[in-house]
Amino acid sequence: MTTNTLYKLALAGVQQLVPYQAGKPISELERELGISHIIKLASNENPLGPSKKALAAITQALPELALYPDGSGFALKQALANKYALTPEHITLGNGSNEILELVARAFLAPGLEAVFSQHAFAVYPLVTQAAGATGVVVPALNYGHDLTAMLQAITPQTRVVFVANPNNPTGTLLSQAQLREFIAALPDTVVCVLDEAYFEFVGATDPINSIDWLAEFPQLLITRTFSKAYGLAGLRVGYGMSSPALTDLLNRVRQPFNNNSLALVAAEAALADFEHLQQTVAVNTNGMQQLTEGFKALGLEWIPSAGNFVAVDMQRPGQPLYEALLHKGVIVRPVGVYQLPNHLRISIGTEAENQQFLRALTEVLAHV
Ligand SMILES: *Cc1c(COP(=O)(O)O)cnc(C)c1O
């Protein structure tokens, strides 16, 4: 068999699929350029690292590694249920919230069906849609954010899933809660609504997110959150979905029995209880956001106001060469050309020292192009 023949055996959606481009790992840049003191502000990770309590829980769980994990995730689900005044029947655990998005696609999408999402929205929505053989319908953005009116209009009888990222990655845009609730209430009964709140913990108090209150009213609503961002556990892969018991049941039917490893389960449970670490994380983010945007202002650059732990800045020229020049200065950021934002770079908020190192590198790079 030729490899060409092999490629043709794959499902049509898989043949066309362009894999997700992750942020460049520090180790890779070290190998490529032979430099050290690299900082990565490219994947919206927690610059403080994980909670000490999570690390202690992992150490304690190590001797049990020969045993399969608890496939029901009993303790973590119970902790989440307690935190959000839900029951474990409302909660789906995933290998990152990415897996929850995949479960939705597996349960509700197939060739001939459609998923609706916004331009500039998180890249995983088109990926899981296409892998399921379904058609992705991209709705043009409004001021870099979701145009909910247009998204509603894009829904057809074939639409089974609508993905909404709030705040959105990579733009950081935030929808008003009133607007969002109205949107969900207006959806036809043929559509599941995925509300991706991966950056929930960073959202300020002006218009607090209260989507959990809507779960009882909308059985087709799925809220996804993660331990990868504010909780600093991206390497362990834990995310969760919150939805009606019926929707939760459907997602669990297509879930692998041991999708979360045992260290991830205990670490997430401990991290959830470490309120101080979370508070510190949010404070570092708030200060860092101010530090970066003040730096942009001084450089005459505009940015998209962000509710997350990252900010997309308009470089007023193609971002890719600047990204590469920054790599040579040991700073990894994220070019967002694949998100149809060719002139922007997305910068994850780091520690004060990291932000400073980035701003210094950016200033040098801009002076030489
Ligand atoms: C980072 C991110 C996720 C998921 O990350 P996981 O590590 O899989 O939990 C989901 N949605 C958005 C918008 C993200 O930026």
Give the topology, please.
Blueprint: H1 3-9, H2 12-16, H3 26-33, E1 39-40, H4 52-61, H5 74-84, E2 91-94, H6 97-108, E3 114-118, H7 124-131, E4 135-139, H8 148-153, E5 159-165, H9 177-186, E6 192-196, E7 221-226, E8 239-243, H10 245-253, H11 262-273, H12 275-298, E9 302-303, E10 310-314, H13 319-328, E11 331-332, E12 334-335, E13 344-348, H14 352-367
Parallel strand pairs: 1-11, 3-4, 3-5, 5-6, 6-7
Antiparallel strand pairs: 2-8, 7-8, 9-10, 10-13, 12-13
Helix pairs in contact: 4-11, 5-11, 6-7, 6-10, 12-14
The chain binds pyridoxal-5'-phosphate.
Characterise the protein shown here:
The protein has 369 residues and is of the alpha/beta class. Helices cover 40% and strands 15% of the residues. It has 14 helices and 13 strands. The chain has helices at residues 3-9, 12-16, 26-33, 52-61, 74-84, 97-108, 124-131, 148-153, 177-186, 245-253, 262-273, 275-298, 319-328, 352-367, and strands at 39-40, 91-94, 114-118, 135-139, 159-165, 192-196, 221-226, 239-243, 302-303, 310-314, 331-332, 334-335, 344-348. Strand 5, helix 9 (177-186) and strand 6 form a beta-alpha-beta unit. The longest helix has 24 residues, at 275-298. 44% of the residues are buried. Pyridoxal-5'-phosphate is lined by residues 44, 96-98, 122, 165, 169, 196, 198, 226, 228-229, 234, 239.
